[in-house]
Design brief:
By secondary structure, the chain is mostly beta strands. Helix content is 4%, strand content 41%.
Length: 753
């Protein structure tokens, strides 16, 4: 005795009489609901794109009134058990579940008597034993569910989640795919469709038994969304200079371009540069056809290109608006292998990661958390307009194998936002390679002691990148000469790290509120190194700090202001190659003991403070300075001094500054034994020497000019041939034994007390 499910909108009692044939969807199996026919017709219209007027045509009925009956099946097995020949075309059934009512797979299905679509166990079902036409099609409004395929966890048959994923992604009527249980995938999928959202509901995704990846293939993800590359190409040799910030590009024939088209554009390798050294590699959209040989695109070039360089254009059809959200992903084992990046490492074939994009536009990833993943959790190349938000990576199998152990890598990417992300014991949290106009904010990496720095760029001519409110080791443009070790207009604000190096060919670097804190487990010096090519720093701190120079493209000054550096003894502050002027403003230095400034370029200190030693019994060594022109304006030097190296002719100007104490050289201002001639100019300065310390110690035909300067204590140590001009000075308790006499010495309006 079978009790059919029935209901009525009226008070009429349901018909509970026996059903002689359970495979016949007769009226005894009908759930009657007044107006339900109109509801199901509406659902069908939404899923198939029918115009509202099409709702006037009944589904499988020939009457001019709403259908008031809806057939109910308790499971897929019951539905598929009904004989196709007894099912009216257009019959709509409420399926209550996959295996049992309420198991989460409930949905409406409609019978299409003419359909021969391949059954997939979820959105398309075929009656059992039906050799010909006749299929049940799921009615939906664009949202689909893995449970429709009978998948309720990782114990589902091997490969079933992959088959369901293929069926849903390949169905153009599906725009959103949801998972409500854990899933296990065993295949690496490549898709070319657009306008799709995959939401895994925060569930755990595994890849036990996944097929092997090909060699060196970070795009062998579980889901790889790839645009289509066409065979439409052009090459154009630049007829004129293409300056920085130009958005009008030369083309061979603009008739091949239309507004809205997407193209990749790249320049030939830089003459005399590395193998992969190109200043331009972008996926851009045409916004205007200017004339026969020019188009405007949605990108302003970041590097000047000389006439004769070659632009290579290729038309593509990108995937657009494919978003992946809300999953915890566990990479496939084995996890043990070579410890230090040695090759070969078979884990590049067996490891897994969730998602990759190539030739993609407006494709976002959010709330994806990877653990033990091999290649980057989110891999991107040739992406434009994207966001990666609230994602993380933890404990990848290696941080030494090149390209492995990342949260996200972006190659040739534009207009990206990476926000609120984390990395734990990983190689990189974020890698921007040959990318531009991207923002990285509120991202934090920990466990970076073993060779992984969370924030990096390759140095393949990245430009206009902003890092804000992040923490973790950072290096910019530091992957090697193969890529160019160059970047431009990089801004870092509110960053905390224990190691920070930005000393390669980085032009117009801006650092604000950056703090490098020494850490015993990694860099005990807390190192910060910058390139003197338009660098500007404000409010930064570090222990070891150095200015280097490897490029000279900027038009703006190198200014370091309102900073503080706790220098290790004998560290190099100003490296040999530095030829550009460097200006320190209101900056404090402690540990100014034997500090070395080797570069020949001008160095200016304005209102800065220098502390060497506060214990006169253990004096500090003076700073050894090689600059041709050093200016100290205002500020104080306590327990330290300046020693000019004499490697070249040099001039030291001290205006309004106070120098006090003693040094290991026995002088506050002195020179070494180099061949150059030294000139010291003291104006409005105050020198207070301890004990027998010399205020100034010069040799040969060096020159001393002292105007309006106060000397107290100590002595002079000037060679008899030293040229001296002293005017308006005050000496108090100074031993003048070492002060020269003769026609080369002029003293006026000075007072000795």
């Amino acid at each position: 005795m079978k009790t059919p499910l029935t209901a009525r909108a009226s008070a009429t009692a349901p018909d509970l009489s026996p059903d002689p044939d359970p495979t016949d969807p007769s009226r005894r199996s009908l759930l009657r609901v007044a107006g339900m026919g109109a509801l199901t017709a509406t659902a069908f219209a939404l899923s198939t794109g029918l115009a509202p007027s099409a709702l006037a045509a009944p589904l499988g009925r020939n009457k001019d009134e709403p259908d008031d009956e809806l057939t109910v099946a308790t499971s897929v097995a019951q539905l598929m058990g009904w004989r196709a020949k007894k099912i009216d075309d257009g019959t709509v059934v409420q399926l209550l579940g996959h295996a049992t009512p309420g198991d989460g797979a409930a949905r409406l299905v409609r019978f299409d008597a003419k359909s021969t679509a391949a059954a997939n166990g979820g959105t398309v079902l075929a009656p059992i034993g039906a050799a010909g036409p006749g299929r049940w099609h799921t009615l939906h409004t664009g949202t689909a569910d893995f449970r429709w395929f009978g998948i309720f966890g990782t114990d589902a048959p091997t490969g079933s989640a992959d088959e369901a994923l293929d069926a849903l992604v390949d169905d153009p009527t599906v725009s959103r795919i949801e998972a409500h249980t854990d899933l296990n995938f065993v295949r690496r999928h490549t898709y070319t469709r657009s306008h799709l959202e995959l939401d895994f509901g925060g569930r755990t995704i595994t890849t036990e038994g996944i097929e092997r990846n090909s060699h060196d293939n970070p795009f062998g993800a579980v889901m790889f969304f790839q645009g289509t590359v066409t065979d439409v190409t052009q090459q154009r040799t630049l007829a004129e200079t293409m300056p920085d910030q130009r958005d009008v590009f030369e083309v061979a024939d603009s008739s091949a371009f239309a507004v809205g088209d997407w193209w990749t554009v790249q320049v030939d390798p830089r003459p005399g540069g590395g193998r992969d050294e190109r200043e331009l590699q972008r996926l851009v959209q045409v916004t205007e056809v200017v004339d026969a040989a020019h188009v405007r695109v949605d990108y302003r070039n970041g590097w000047e290109l000389a006439p004769g360089r070659v632009l290579e254009w290729r038309k593509v059809v990108p995937v657009e608006q494919v978003h992946v959200r809300n999953m915890t992903f566990i990479g496939a084992g084995p996890y043990d292998g070579p410890l230090n990046g040695e090759l070969p490492d078979d884990r590049e074939h067996t490891g897994s990661h969730p998602v990759a994009y190539e030739f993609a536009v407006r494709c976002d990833v959010s709330d994806v958390h990877g653990s033990r993943t091999w290649w980057p959790v989110i891999m991107r190349r040739w992406n434009t307009f994207f966001a990666t938000e609230r994602c993380s990576v933890a404990n990848p199998p290696t941080v030494f194998y090149g390209g492995a152990g990342y949260l996200t890598q972006q190659i040739y990417c534009l207009y990206g936002r990476i926000a609120d992300c984390r990395s734990h014991n990983a190689r990189h949290l974020n890698d921007l390679t040959a990318s531009a106009y991207c923002l990285v904010e509120n991202c934090h990496g920990d466990g970076d002691d073993q060779g992984g720095n969370p924030f990096t760029t390759h140095g393949q001519y990245e430009h206009d990148l902003v890092f804000q409110g992040n923490s973790g080791l950072m290096d910019i443009a530091n992957s090697g000469a193969q890529w160019g070790i160059s970047a431009k207009r990089i801004t870092v604000k509110g960053h905390v790290a224990s190691w920070f190096t930005v000393s390669t060919q980085i032009t117009d670097l801006t650092l604000e509120d950056v703090h490098v804190v020494a850490r015993s487990t990694f860099d005990q010096q807390g190192s910060l190194t910058v390139n003197a090519d338009g660098v500007q720093m404000r409010g930064c701190t570090a222990s070891f700090f150095a200015v280097a120079q490897r490029s000279s493209l900027s038009k703006r000054p190198n200014v370091i202001e309102d900073c503080h550096f706790s220098l290790p003894v004998g560290s190099v502050l100003h490296q040999t190659p530095v030829a550009n002027p460097v200006h320190f403003v209101r900056t404090g230095f402690t540990g100014f003991d034997g500090t070395v400034l080797r570069g020949a370029g001008p160095v200016t200190f304005t209102d800065c403070t220098f502390v060497g030693s506060t214990d006169e019994a253990a004096p500090a060594a003076p700073a050894l300075v090689g600059s041709a022109d050093v200016t100290i304006s205002g500020g104080t030097l306590t327990g330290t001094g300046i020693r000019l190296s004499g490697v070249r002719d040099q001039r030291l100007t001290v205006r309004g500054a106070k120098i006090s104490g003693t040094t290991t050289a026995g002088a506050l201002v002195s020179r070494a034994a180099g061949p150059g001639t030294v000139q010291v100019d003291l104006r409005g300065a105050t020198l207070a020497a301890s004990g027998t310390t010399a205020h100034v110690a010069l040799a040969g035909t060096d020159a001393l000019t002292a105007v309006g300067t106060r000397f107290s204590g100590g002595r002079y140590d000037l060679a008899p041939t030293t040229r001296v001009l002293q005017s308006g000075c005050v000496e108090q308790g100074v031993d003048r034994t070492g002060f020269p006499e003769g026609d080369h010495v002029l003293v006026t309006d000075s007072l000795a007390l």
